Amino acid sequence: MYPENLLKLIYYLKKLSGVGSKTAERFAFELIKWNEFELSDLANIFKDLKKNILHCNACGCLIAKDYCKFCDSNLRDSKKICIVSSFKEVFLLEKTKTYNGFYHILETLISPIEGKEIDEDNIIKLKKRIEKNSISEVIIALDSTIEGDATSLYIKEELLDYKVNISRLAFGLPMGISLDYIDGTTLAQAFNGRQSF
User: Fold this and answer.
1) N or C: which end of the chain has fewer CB within 10 A?
2) Residues 111-121: pLDDT tens digits?
């Protein structure tokens, strides 16, 4: 039987996405080999994570301080806004270097099975951003899944009264695959091949 603190470490490591029991154990034993300074530094990063990594009030992206580079109209194309489901996807799209507009993070997708609905306040915030910035194109970059499709249709319906071109990433993306698992080249091609929606 492992010592109690080691069991606790394995328990928390297993909470990470894609980490099973064996991998968690392997990680735990690896961490035991680290020196005091490395462990202390890692512990401080964990301790201050919520304090040092913030969310932008406008777009939802991760920021280090009060400034959001993704909302800076001097650096970005302020006539385009790309809708994604999580802040992680912003960084995936940024790596492709194919898009330089604003982002808007939904955080949840419509899922009747799980009882998930879109946050109405978030949609109101999106509409206000479209009006304020005179957005001309809304790009929907959601996963090609049942939830992603349902949410995309919902957003399209919500924006019918706005004079914006609504496009969605090309359907060359594999069905049912999360954007996390798409390589940069495929993602860039899908982005450049987006179609009116």
Assistant:
1) N
2) 877 778 888 99
